[in-house]
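Issue 218. Parser rejects a valid record. Input:
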Amino acid sequence: MKIGFIGLGIMGKPMVKNFLKEQNTVLVNDVNKDTELEMVKEGAQAVSITEMAQEVDYLFLSLPNGAIVKSVLYSGQESILNQPQVNVKSVIDTSSLTPNESLEISKVLEEKSVSYIDAPVSGGEPLAITGELSIMVGCNENDYEDIKKVCEPIAQSVIRVGEVGSGSVVKLANQIIVNTNIAALSEAVVLAKKFNIDLEAMYQAIKGGLAESTVMDAKFPKMIAEDYQPGGTLNINLKDLKNVTSTADTVGLTLPVSNQVKEIYKSEVAQGNGLNDHSGIIKYFENINNMKVTKC
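Output the parser choked on:
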């Protein structure tokens, strides 16, 4: 089985490494040729789009947005579907798109007898590294068991949530939960700091109760250490929140909390901090309250 992978960013690189650990043949392509070379040193093969279209059975994508996904697959001059020979069986798209984008892409690929699986992931870089991502799969029921097996090296959970587009909906729901949690955690930390509470003691006290969460465990230490090295950037999460609110608008839903959190993220990105981890949203709350939250 040959696996193709396009998009070797924060999430793509560790996923490729985990496929390689399982002795898979992995062909890679990225606009950043230094990143390609890094993966070649790990055992991958850097190839052209033409070779990718001809040689791989399963093509994984990990790309920033829907426009780039479409360009890579069919709208770009050198896209996969514009190659003289296309042997790709399934495109497994781990990018975070809107449901409408996923459906549009699926229809185009279906005309070329290529299955499109919307398979956004959750867990960030740490779980991408350990191969323990959660994948929310939108696909034809007949494709599911095959896709589940292919994804085993990169995920601890591969759950089909419905037909194509459903994975994107569930990822949007996931991003609401994650990003509102981070914003709420930021407010809680600022409140505690204002009253000179020992933040580590606060964390340990809360940890055993209902407020304990994976988000808190992952992001609280980064907040108080001012460690904004990204697992998931503010830019990417703002994009996801925009997808949440635009998708809600298309079906007449009002999501006041998501809209408010989106505006907070937008404000922090406007300060030039878009490449920070989204735990860095605490800087917004520090700034509006004219205070600092650190261990020192």
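Fixed in the parser; the record now loads. The longest strand covers residues 155-162.
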